[in-house]
C-alpha cells in the first residue's frame, strides 16, 4: 500500500474513533460494543507504529477521553488524569513487563499491584483538612467537569476522612460504577416508566453521574472504589513507598476499596491473577472489563513516567468481549 492510501486509511480510522468517542464520552450513548472500539483503536495504533511520521497530534491515540460537557463548571486537573495502555493476551502482558525491565535496565522480578478494571468512570475527589471539597470527572484528562454535588450523594463516598494524620490536601482517584443488581433494577424501572434503558452498567453510571440535578443522581445505585492518588500536599507529607501500601493507607482513612485488589510478582504472577479474576467475573457484583497491573514501587513509577495518554508503568489486560448492548444496532462494523 502506498503512503497516500495508508494516510487516507488512518484518517478514516481517526474519524471513526472520534465519532465513537463523542457518542461514548460526551453523549453517554455508545453506538458500538467496546470490543469493536478496541479493534479499530488497535488497528490505528498498529498503523501508527509502522508509520510514525503519519501520526497527527489530534489522533485519538494521543488523547484521553472526550471534551467535558459545557453544562458543568470546568475543573483543571493539577495532575493529568490519564488512560491506560491495553494488553489483549499473555504475550502482550509479557511484552509489557519486558519494556518496563528494559527501560529500568533491571532484570529482577518486579512487584505489581493487581486490580480489577472496574467498568465505570474515573473520578477525582479532593479532600481538604479531611473534608470533601470537590469532585470532578476525568474529561479530556486535563480538564474535567465539576460534579461535586452528585458525588456527595454516593453512599459509600466519605464526606470526611477518618483519623488524625491526613495530608492537608489529598486528591483521591477511583471509579464510580453501578453494581449489576442496581443496574437491573434501574433498567426495569426505566422500562416500566417508558424511559430510556441504559446500554450497560457503565453507561448507566455515566448518565447518572452527569446529571444537572443531583436529586436524580441520589436515587441511582452508584458506588465508588478508590485506586490511586492525585495531588497531595504538603509534598513533605510521608506516604508509603508502594502503590499497594498507599491503597491500604487510603482504606484506613475511610475510602472504599475493591476487595479483590492484590499484589503479584512478574508477568507470570500477573497472568495467574488475571485467570483467577476472569473465573470470578460472572459472580462479582459489579462489571469489570479486565484487570489492571501497576508497577508497585512508586520510585520506579516515577522513573518510568508517561507517554502521550498513559503511564508506562501500568497496563490494562482486557477480558475477552462479553458485550450486551441493549440499544445496539444490528449492523456489521467494518472499517
Ligand atoms: P480504559 O478504560 O481502557 O482505561 C482507563 C480507565 O480505566 C481509567 O480512566 C479508569 O476509569 C478505569 N479503571 C478501572 N479500574 C481501574 C484501576 N484499578 N486503576 C486505574 N484505572 C482504572 O481507557 P479509557 O480511555 O477510559 O477508555 C477506553 C475504553 O473505553 C476502550 O478500550 C473501550 O473499551 C471503551 N470505549 C468504548 C467506546 C464505544 O463506543 N463503545 C468509545 C470509547 C471508549
UniProtKB/TrEMBL annotation:
It comes from the Bacteria. This is DNA ligase. NAD(+) binds at residues 34-38, 83-84, 115, 138, 175, 294, 318. Coiled coil: none annotated. DNA ligase that catalyzes the formation of phosphodiester linkages between 5'-phosphoryl and 3'-hydroxyl groups in double-stranded DNA using NAD as a coenzyme and as the energy source for the reaction. It is essential for DNA replication and repair of damaged DNA. The gene is ligA. Signal peptide: none annotated. The chain holds residues 1 to 335 of 677 of the full protein. Belongs to the NAD-dependent DNA ligase family. LigA subfamily. The active site is at residue 117.
